[in-house]
Write the structure tokens for this entry.
Amino acid sequence: MPKRFRLTRRFPVAMTEDGYRRLRSFAAEAGLDEGEALSFLFENFDAVTDAEGLGHRLRQFNSDLDARKR
């Protein structure tokens, strides 16, 4: 029996414009709203990420983060 989809948490998030555009694009392609798309991505995080590339991308993002905040 499938799990009932219930949104149990709401939280304010800060996203870059590029990240939000990509989220909206992904959600539209998948026929989901943004909250459902985020739930899908985090529930299936290991399956949708490349474990080898994740560390490199995270380090790259963190190194650029301070410059983006200015």
Helices lie at 17-30, 34-43, 45-48, 51-69.
